[in-house]
Amino acid sequence: MLGELLAGLLAHHGAHPRWSAAADGGAPASLLANYLGHPDGKVFVAEQQDRLVGLICVAVARRPAFFAESLRGHVEHLYVAPEARRGGFGRALVEEAFGWLRLAGAVRVELEVARDNPEGQAFWAAIGFTQVALVLERQL
């Protein structure tokens, strides 16, 4: 079930306060509702033996036409169940999602990976992503 994958995603990021779910509930159902039916977004899933084992949520980000690059892709979430990792599901999800982003007119894709997620950093580096910016934040 897709809800189980989203729950796994939220649990995976739960240790990081920036990405953890709000305590008032509603996740993962509200997270799922944000992506299904999104006019500029798409959810892809991976299946193994009639069981969902992975998902990727991507969106097309739009800028005003006066920018040289008015469309870009953005990976919102990628999650593969622990028992299915290293089975090619993550890479297959990325390729499927990137094909959709290309058809939508995006020529570049960006994403965020937590500094304390070396597994995620290694995955994205292995498929050609490089660091181009440093995101700084501060609590108000």
The largest pleated sheet is described as: 4 strands, mixed
The appropriate CATH architecture of one domain is 3-Layer(aba) Sandwich
CATH superfamily of one domain: Gcn5-related N-acetyltransferase (GNAT)
Reading off the top of the CATH hierarchy, the class of one domain is best stated as Alpha Beta
Spell out the helices and strands N to C.
HHEEEHEH
Determine the CATH topology of one domain: Aminopeptidase
- Count every beta strand, where a strand is a DSSP E run of 2 or more residues: 4
Helix content: 25-40%
Low-confidence stretches: none
Shape: globular
Query: What percent of residues are in strands?
Result: 15-25%
Instruction: Report the total helices.
Output: 4
Terminal Cα span: 37 Å
Strand order of the largest sheet: 1-2-3-4
**Helix-strand makeup class:** alpha+beta
Mean pLDDT: 84
Describe the structure in your own words:
With 140 residues, the chain is an alpha+beta fold. The chain has a domain at 39-126: Gcn5-related N-acetyltransferase (GNAT) (Aminopeptidase, 3-Layer(aba) Sandwich), CATH 3.40.630. The chain has 4 helices and 4 strands, in the order H-H-E-E-E-H-E-H. The chain has helices at residues 2-13, 29-35, 89-103, 118-126, and strands spanning 41-48, 51-62, 71-80, 109-110. It has a 4-stranded mixed beta sheet with strand order 1-2-3-4. A hairpin with a 2-residue loop joins strand 1 and strand 2. The N and C termini lie far apart (37 Å). The model has no long low-confidence stretch (mean pLDDT 84).
